[in-house]
Design goal:
- This protein is an all-alpha fold and 409 residues long.
- Helix 4 runs parallel beside helix 12, helix 6 runs antiparallel to helix 7 and helix 16 crosses helix 17.
- The longest helix has 30 residues.
- It starts with a helix and ends with a helix.
- 48% of the residues are buried.
Length: 409
């Protein structure tokens, strides 16, 4: 069974990491489902054991945050952003860039970064086209800022949601320990954008009046209420879902349009990966591997810190950040300073998504939506992604360590 589990796991992760493999082009969700079925079909897990591997809290939270994001779109809150961006920029292309980065980062901390990119990209394209601005710098700024901002909270991206479920960290403590590093990385990111695109953005653009309709006030208030509940320590998944139901009842109509905005593919991908990783854990190999690696990933020495950061950075880009967190999660409590380890795992695995165009789903969403207007190339993205990732890690990780030391471990 051990050999079978390793074979199924290896095939699954080969397909997930390659994204599109000509020999078996079934995509990442299809690959994860194939692995889940394989774990049960070959007897590594019984059907009951497979169900037991699913982390219901993480799946519920992901679903609830996607629904909240969908309501913001349906109620016109997102379209209202277009009007606010144009007015606040006052005709300054660089001010518009800063506003885009701040908005995408903050929204990604409040909602799932993938969802933010889905609804923000069309808004940004309309603004750039009407202002006659080059779209590439703004698209890249949107994607990379969404990834950075999502590192701030336990609901910012799927891997942080998983870390919240596995670690037991409170919403408020996680945000408190992550905030300084995210701010430092965000400032470095803005400086890099200013330096890279200093000759590409014009001095001014002609302000225009947005055609977006006024948005309802209730959805942002509900989102604020949800995050108040999260900071009070309420169950994250059910709190998000309660906010969704307030909006459903306020509209007094079927929520079917919002259901269509949920990324069901991502939910299936998550659920199937839980089964695949659960099958490998069932063999005891993950536990033994963590035990062997423990001396080299100690967070109490600079060598161990470097080894941990490099492992997470490379692993996140080889097998993607969510599968990597699933693999490392069971052994995190065995490491010295586990709380610091969880915070660092969340930050590095999220920042790693900025390295390449394929590094995060958020990047791919922006690229796919923008394709008819501008096709983001691999090198074009890497030119910014490499710089901002290295700067974020070099400045952010020491800030994380210092913050954790100040606020107690």
């Amino acid at each position: 069974m051990t050999l079978v589990a390793v074979a199924v796991f290896a095939l699954t992760y080969l397909l997930v990491a390659s994204r599109t493999w000509a020999l078996l082009p079934i995509g990442r969700p299809g690959a994860a489902l194939l692995g889940a079925v394989g774990m049960v079909a070959f007897g590594v897990l019984s059907p009951g054991e497979a169900w037991a591997t699913l982390d219901g809290d993480t799946l519920l939270l992901l679903f609830g945050m996607m629904m909240l994001g969908g309501w913001l779109v349906e109620e016109g809150t997102v379209d209202g952003m277009e009007r606010r961006l144009v007015r606040a920029a006052h005709g300054s292309p660089w001010r518009l860039m800063v506003l885009v980065c701040l908005a995408s980062g903050l929204l990604s901390a409040l909602l799932v970064n993938d969802t933010v990119c889905v609804f923000f990209t069309p808004v940004l394209l309309r603004v750039c086209q009407r202002a006659r601005l080059p779209v590439a710098p703004y698209l890249l700024g949107l994607a990379t800022s969404a990834n950075l901002g999502s590192a701030l909270t336990l609901v910012g991206n799927p891997q942080n949601m998983l870390i919240g479920s596995l670690s037991g960290l409170s919403f408020t403590r996680f945000a408190l320990l992550s905030l300084p590093a995210v701010l430092v990385a965000g400032l470095a990111h803005l400086f890099i954008l200013a330096w890279m695109y200093r000759g590409l953005l014009p001095a001014r653009f002609e302000p225009f009046e947005s055609e977006a309709k006024p948005a309802r006030l209730l959805p942002p208030l509900v989102v604020g209420g949800v995050f108040l509940g999260l900071n009070l320590g309420l169950h994250m998944g059910w709190t998000a879902l309660a906010g969704v139901m307030v909006l459903v009842l306020s509209r007094r109509s079927s929520p079917e349009p919002v259901f269509r905005r949920v990324d069901w593919t991502l939910l299936v991908f998550f659920a199937a990966l839980f089964v695949v990783v659960g099958g490998l854990e069932h063999t005891g190999l993950v536990e033994r591997a963590i035990e062997l690696l423990k001396p080299y990933l100690s967070l109490s020495t600079w060598q161990g810190q470097l080894g941990f950061v490099v492992t997470v950075l490379i692993g996140s880009n080889l097998v993607s950040n969510v599968p990597l967190v699933m693999l490392l999660g069971p052994g995190m409590s065995e490491l010295p300073q586990p709380e610091l380890g969880w915070i660092e795992l969340a930050f590095v695995s999220t920042v790693a998504g900025n390295l390449t165009l394929m590094g995060s789903v958020a990047n791919l969403i922006v690229a796919e939506i923008a394709r008819p207007v501008h096709e983001i190339g691999f090198r074009e993205y890497l030119n910014l992604g490499l710089r901002t990732t290295l700067a974020s890690l070099v400045l952010g990780v020491p800030t994380l360590i210092l913050t954790h030391a100040v606020f107690g471990g």
